[in-house]
Amino acid sequence: MPRKNKYATAKDITRFVKKKLKLDENIVRQVIDLYIEEIKSEIINGRQVRLSEFGTFELTKWNTGLIYDINTKQKVEKQIKTVLFHPSEKLKEKVLRN
Questions:
Q1: pTM metric for this prediction
Q2: What is the CATH number of the domain that holds 84?
Q3: 7-50: per-residue pLDDT in tens?
Q4: Rounded (10°) CA dihedral 32, 34, 38, 44
């Protein structure tokens, strides 16, 4: 997927799949969008998402701490959440070879 940018977009992936499988672009886009939405939904619900030969996404919660809220100008106690990605061994190997 040659691009001028340093990143690939869903549009780039749609074009690639459309060309590779010779399918309608709208159908491919819908499938990709549904796939991404399902991954997001599972992560939000606290479930791990494992994609074989790619990696694992999981929601991680950090310890509760005091955070300064710029909107209210007060310190509030909040739990920080983030999404972690652990690449699979096969992906790591491919990245290191290139």
A1: 0.74
A2: 4.10.520.10
A3: 888 999 999 999 999 999 999 999 999 999 999 999 999 999 99
A4: 100
